[in-house]
């Protein structure tokens, strides 16, 4: 088996690269930011705002791109 040595070297190289990448990722994840950077942030709702409730939804057999939606306030919506 002449290719056995080359395969072994390839496997070792692959393992080394994986260990290197995992180690590098762990070191990068340990990098922390100062908590002072986040003190000025405040929670706010930026949407999307709820427009209403849906009563029913259905698709059209044979046409996977067509659907109908019924709302509790009345009305039917068609989506293509």
TrEMBL record:
Keyword Transmembrane carried by entry: yes
Keywords assigned: Membrane, Transmembrane, Transmembrane helix
Ranges that cross the membrane: 12-29
Protein's name according to its UniProt entry: Uncharacterized protein
Organism: marine metagenome
Organism classification: unclassified sequences, metagenomes, ecological metagenomes
């Amino acid at each position: 088996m002449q290719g056995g040595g080359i395969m072994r070297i390839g496997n070792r190289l692959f393992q080394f690269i994986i260990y290197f990448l995992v180690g590098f990722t762990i070191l990068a994840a340990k990098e922390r930011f100062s908590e002072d950077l986040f003190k000025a942030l405040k929670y706010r709702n930026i949407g999307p705002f709820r427009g209403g409730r849906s009563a029913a939804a259905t698709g059209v057999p044979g046409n996977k791109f067509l659907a109908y939606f019924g709302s509790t306030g009345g009305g039917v919506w068609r989506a293509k």
